[in-house]
Amino acid sequence: MLRYPQIDPVAISIGPLKIHWYGLTYLVGFLSAWFLGRLRARKPGSPLNEEQMGDLIFYAALGVILGGRFGYVVFYNFELFLADPLWLFRIWEGGMAFHGGLLGVLIAMAWFARRIGRSFFQVTDFVAPLVPIGLGAGRIGNFINGELWGKPTDVAWGMVFPKAPDALVRHPSQLYQFAMEGVLLFAVLWWFSARPRPRMAVSGLFLALYGVFRIVAEFFRQPDAQLGYLAFDWVTMGQVLSLPMVLAGAAMMVWAYRRSAA
């Protein structure tokens, strides 16, 4: 068993001002996307230029924050919202969902694409490789907060999370997700997008791979207490929401390559 490194969730405290590590992970995600986006924008044939990256990140940030909060409320805590509608706006109390954030970003990218005169998939193919670093940083934030812990285990690298309602040794599933959704997804997408691909292929690969990685990670992650398992004592909300991503991503890639070969 490994000892859980209890890190103060507050990174910087100046009087009443407190800056949390989790908030800084969002900053890391947006700054890395801006930096990598400027690198991609310099390549011949890029649908975006460097000057447009600031606007792109602004639109993406709106989509992530608004969509992520809305998704958490609808998918994971709708009953609490019905009991206390104002809770929707108390973002400082926590609660963000990737799938909601994804929907928010897709809407924001459609708006941005129309504004700059590009097609939706030109923009999403450009953006997809920029996303995983932010996803990985967010999982590190979850780990620092000691939240979204894994299921009980007897593996040598298991940990006891202080916020868990028991003293069981658990999978550090946040780190599994960091490795898959952050490191591995970034490496594959950056490599795949380094060469010209049919339009929609990069976006499709992002959806399919993230969906697969999330479904796998859910087998190690403790389901949300207010939802539990949805079926068969193993199906989780995260898996239900990720399966359409896998199917849609695979279909998009097949369609993209068939269309390019026609």
TrEMBL record:
Top enzyme category: transferase
Name of one Pfam family that matches: LGT
GO cellular component: plasma membrane
Listed transmembrane segments: 19-36, 56-76, 96-114, 126-144, 175-193, 200-217, 237-257
Membrane topology term: Multi-pass membrane protein
Superkingdom assignment: Bacteria
GO molecular function: phosphatidylglycerol-prolipoprotein diacylglyceryl transferase activity
Enzyme Commission (EC) number: 2.5.1.145
Keywords: Cell membrane, Lipoprotein, Membrane, Transferase, Transmembrane, Transmembrane helix
Organism taxonomic ancestry: Bacteria, Pseudomonadati, Pseudomonadota, Gammaproteobacteria, Pseudomonadales
Subcellular location: Cell membrane
Pathway involvement of the protein, from the record: Protein modification; lipoprotein biosynthesis (diacylglyceryl transfer)
UniProt key word Membrane: yes
Function, in words: Catalyzes the transfer of the diacylglyceryl group from phosphatidylglycerol to the sulfhydryl group of the N-terminal cysteine of a prolipoprotein, the first step in the formation of mature lipoproteins.
Name of the molecule in the record: Phosphatidylglycerol--prolipoprotein diacylglyceryl transferase
UniProt family annotation: Belongs to the Lgt family.
UniProt: a 1,2-diacyl-sn-glycero-3-phospho-(1'-sn-glycerol) binding residues: 139
GO biological process: lipoprotein biosynthetic process
